[in-house]
Design brief:
There is one protein chain. By secondary structure, the protein is of the alpha+beta class. It has 3 domains: about 1-95, no CATH class; about 115-230, Sandwich (Jelly Rolls); about 240-310, Phage tail protein beta-alpha-beta fold. It has 9 helices and 17 strands. The protein has helices at about 1-15, 20-30, 30-50, 55-85, 85-95, 100-105, 230-235, 245-255, 280-290; strands at about 110, 115-120, 125-130, 130-140, 145-150, 150-155, 165, 170-185, 185-200, 205-210, 215, 220-225, 240-245, 260-265, 270-280, 295-300, 305-310. Strands 1, 2, 3, 4, 5, 6, 7, 8, 9, 10, 11 and 12 form a 12-stranded mixed β-sheet that branches. α1 (about 1-15) packs across α3 (about 30-50) and α2 (about 20-30) packs across α3 (about 30-50). The two termini are about 20 Å apart. Mean pLDDT is about 80; it is low at about 50-60 and about 70-95.
Length: about 300
C-alpha cells in the first residue's frame, strides 16, 4: 500500500516522464496486490481531489481503473458462461458489497468522522462512533437496534420491554446495563461496563457477559473473552485510551476520525502504547505518538499518512 502511495506521488510530479510511466506500469503488472493497492490509492485520491479533475494523470489513472474494471467484468462474464448467469449475479453482488452499502446509506442513524450522541425512543442514551450506522425499531413489545457498521455505546433506560441489539453474528439482550457493541472482521465484540448482557449467536448457545468483561463472538460461538477495555468506552468522550495497546490497534481506532488513509508499517505494528489521546485532534495524537515512540510520520500525499520506524 505504501508503495502505491509513493508511486502516486512520483507520477504526480513526473507525469510527463515516459520512463516513470513505464516503470509504474511494470510495477502494476508484477502482482495483483499492486493493482489492488493502486486502485485503493486512486479511490482515496478521487475522494479528496488531490489532483485537478482535468490533469493528465487524473485521466490516466481513471483509464487504468476502467481497464481493470472491464477486465474483471470479462472474467465474470466468462464464469457466467461456464457456470450460469445466477453465479454472475451472485459474484457481482458479493464483490461490490452493494447490500451493505445500501443498508448503511438508508440507516436511521449514520455518521462519517465524528461521534454522534443519540437519545433513543425509550429515553436510552447511545453514542455512535465514527463510520458507523444503526437502525432503530421500537414497538409496544420490543426495543430493537441493528448495528450495520462500526460501533455503538448504549446506556439503557428503565423499561419493561426487552432491549435487543442485533448484528450479523447474533443477538444481544441488555439486562439493565451500559455496554458497547463493535463490528470487527466478521465478528462482534461486546464490552460491558454496568449490569450484564446476554449473547445469543445466531447458530450457537446463550452466554452472559458481566460488568467489567468483554467477549468476541461469531455466528456459532464465543471466540475470545477478557476484561473490558477502557478504549471501548473512552471514544464516546472524545478520548483514545491506551493501556499496553498495540500501536496498530490504536491507529485502527484513530483512522476513522482522520480524512484519508492512515496506516502503520509492519515493523512497528507491535509497539506498545500507554496514555490518553484526543480523538478530536488526530494530528495532535500522531504528534504525541511520534514524540513518545521510535516512529516518524510519513505523508507522501496530503491525504495519505503512514507511521514508519524512525
Amino acid at each position: 500500500m505504501q508503495q502505491a502511495a509513493r508511486w502516486y506521488a512520483r507520477l504526480n510530479g513526473e507525469a510527463d516522464d515516459a520512463d516513470t510511466r513505464q516503470a509504474w506500469q511494470t510495477w502494476l503488472a508484477e502482482d495483483d496486490r499492486h493493482r489492488s493497492a493502486w486502485a485503493y490509492v486512486e479511490r482515496v485520491s478521487q475522494r479528496f481531489q488531490a489532483l485537478q479533475p482535468g490533469s493528465d494523470l487524473h485521466a490516466q489513472t481513471l483509464r487504468q481503473a476502467g481497464q481493470q474494471l472491464r477486465s474483471r467484468r470479462q472474467h465474470l462474464r466468462t464464469l457466467a458462461l461456464l457456470l450460469g448467469a445466477p453465479v454472475l449475479g451472485w459474484l457481482s453482488w458479493r464483490h461490490t458489497a452493494l447490500p451493505e452499502r445500501l443498508s448503511v446509506w438508508r440507516a436511521d442513524h449514520r455518521n462519517a468522522s465524528r461521534v454522534l450522541a443519540l437519545r433513543l425512543g425509550d429515553g436510552s442514551q447511545a453514542w455512535l462512533n465514527s463510520d458507523s450506522a444503526l437502525n432503530e425499531t421500537f414497538t409496544t413489545d420490543l426495543r430493537h437496534l441493528a448495528l450495520l457498521r462500526g460501533e455503538v455505546l448504549i446506556d439503557t433506560a428503565r423499561d419493561p420491554r426487552p432491549f435487543i441489539v442485533e448484528t450479523e453474528q447474533g443477538r444481544l439482550r441488555a439486562l439493565g446495563t451500559r455496554f458497547s457493541v463493535r463490528l470487527r472482521d466478521g465478528a462482534t465484540q461486546l464490552s460491558v461496563f454496568q449490569g450484564a448482557v446476554e449473547i445469543r449467536p445466531h447458530d450457537g448457545g446463550v452466554h452472559v457477559v458481566q460488568a467489567g468483561e468483554q467477549s468476541l463472538f461469531d455466528r456459532r460461538s464465543i471466540l475470545d473473552s477478557g476484561p473490558a477495555q477502557a478504549l471501548r468506552e473512552g471514544w464516546s468522550h472524545g478520548l483514545l485510551q491506551a493501556s499496553d495497546t498495540r500501536l496498530e490497534e490504536l491507529i485502527a481506532e484513530l483512522a476513522p476520525h482522520i480524512r484519508g488513509h492512515l496506516g502503520v508499517a509492519p515493523e512497528i505494528a507491535d509497539l506498545r502504547v500507554m496514555g490518553t489521546y484526543p480523538l478530536h485532534d488526530p494530528q495532535q495524537t500522531l504528534d504525541m505518538l511520534a514524540s513518545a515512540l521510535p516512529i516518524r510520520i510519513a505523508r507522501p500525499l496530503p491525504w495519505w499518512t503512514t507511521l514508519e520506524a524512525r
